[in-house]
Amino acid sequence: MTDGRRAESYLAEWYLPNLAEPTVDDVVARLSAAASAVTGEGTPVRLTMTLANPSDEVLYGVFDADSSEAVVLACQRAGIPHLRLSTPVVARVDRQSNGCPDAESPRDIPENLAPPSEI
Question: Is residue 46 a contact partner of residue 64, using CB atoms and an 8 Å limit?
Fold first, then answer.
């Protein structure tokens, strides 16, 4: 991420009994803060997305980093060591409306996640 090479994406997995939205919000906040702190110390790592499956009590997080060690450090710093880390992975999120009534409209997508505007 800092030496000109492209960061790779890593998939972390946690088993969290009684997984509910407030729990997910807390975990995501802790992971994001830890990733920022680790990055500030010179080891770039960024939490790019999370996916919660409450019925299976599983949370997944996708991180961009130069190494898996950076992800491990961020998770440990957050106090939430991962149960499994898959390296590297390919993550794509389609932000285009597919015509489904429940699909997010572009105005509902946070600015930092929205596709670049056309010029």
Answer: yes
> 23 or 6, which is more confident?
23
How many secondary structure helices (H) and strands (E) does the chain include? 2, 4
Identify the H or E element spanning 10: strand 8-15
Amino acid at 80: I
> Can you tell me whether residue 88 is helix, strand or coil?
strand
User: Residue 10's closest CA among 66, 56, 54, 55?
Assistant: 66
Residue 60 has pLDDT above 90, yes or no: yes
Nearest Cα neighbor of 51 from 68, 63, 37, 35 is 63
Q: What domains can be seen in the chain, in order of their start residue?
A: 8-91 (3.30.70.3090)
**Confidence label for 7 from pLDDT (cuts 50, 70 and 90):** confident
Q: Which two tokens stand for residue 45?
A: 């790592």
| pTM for this predicted structure | 0.73
Instruction: Extract the tokens encoding 108.
Output: 């509902």
